[in-house]
Design a protein that fits this description.
The structure is a single chain. The protein is mainly α. It folds into two domains: 51 residues, no CATH class; 141 residues, no CATH class. The relative contact order is 0.08. The radius of gyration is 28 Å and the shape is globular. It is found in: Endoplasmic reticulum membrane.
Length: 241
């Protein structure tokens, strides 16, 4: 390593701690802080640049993997995470659900702030927001009918925020909405989810309509991001064409 210290010749190497100590001893007090900082840069920061961290090595290894292996590792990680959460939290798993609902509500509020300040909704899928509103309405009705607890309040806050986002896109920021890219038909998602909810739903003591609402909201929530992904894909294709 080459020294950057002003008290040594330009190409003197600081390979010994004793040399560094001697250098500090002969350096005037008013310049010792500067010299010490340069020694730190040479030994510590330079060493970090020379030897990559474990995290960067892991990321490079992951990038070299085939896509199928990446998907397999991702699914395995998700499954293991869910199992660990189930084993560690036990009966307190509903707290994670509350945290996720709270994060969703905060995310929508942040989105409203961005739309209000930047005055554009370019790149945002209206259909994803409408699907979000659909599953929130369904879940809110089910929650009012069954629970009437903190989940109901969080769903109401998120629903109102989502409806405001839809209003902003449809009316206030209509000129910046790229409708031709947001072209995934809604019935491709809503109809299959409704049919699946009628066939596959949790067996509880509630009325059948309550089971249907619960399953329908869960299925719609799981796929509500598809229009947004389709819009991003269309935008990428348009940019490369």
């Amino acid at each position: 390593m080459l020294s950057m210290c002003p008290c040594l010749p330009p190409k003197t190497e600081l390979t010994s701690p004793f040399l560094c100590s001697a250098l500090l001893c002969i350096t005037p007090k008013e310049r010792q802080t500067e010299v010490l900082g340069r020694i730190f840069d040479i030994f510590v920061m330079g060493r970090k640049r020379d030897s990559p961290s474990a995290a960067s090595s892991l990321l490079r290894w992951l990038r070299r993997l085939p896509m199928k292996m990446k998907v397999f590792l991702g699914l395995t990680f998700a499954a293991v995470t869910l199992i660990i959460l189930r084993l560690t939290l036990g009966s307190h798993i509903h707290k994670v659900y509350i945290i996720s609902e709270l994060c969703h509500a905060i995310g929508i509020i942040v989105l409203i702030y961005k739309l209000t300040t930047q005055r554009t909704c370019s790149g945002l899928s209206l259909k994803s927001q409408e699907l979000t509103a659909i599953f929130l309405v369904t879940r809110f009705v089910w929650s009012v009918y069954i629970e009437q607890n903190i989940h109901t309040i969080l769903d109401l806050v998120t629903l109102v925020s989502t409806l405001w986002v839809i209003y902003m896109i449809r009316f206030k920021l209509k000129s910046t909405y790229i409708k031709e890219l947001d072209n995934l038909p809604m019935y491709y998602i809503v109809v299959p989810c409704a049919v699946l909810s009628a066939l596959v739903h949790p067996h509880t003591n509630y009325f059948p309509i309550g089971r249907f609402f619960f399953a329908f909201s869960a299925y719609i929530e799981a796929v509500s991001v598809l229009p947004q992904l389709r819009l991003m894909q269309n935008a990428k294709v348009t940019a490369h064409s």
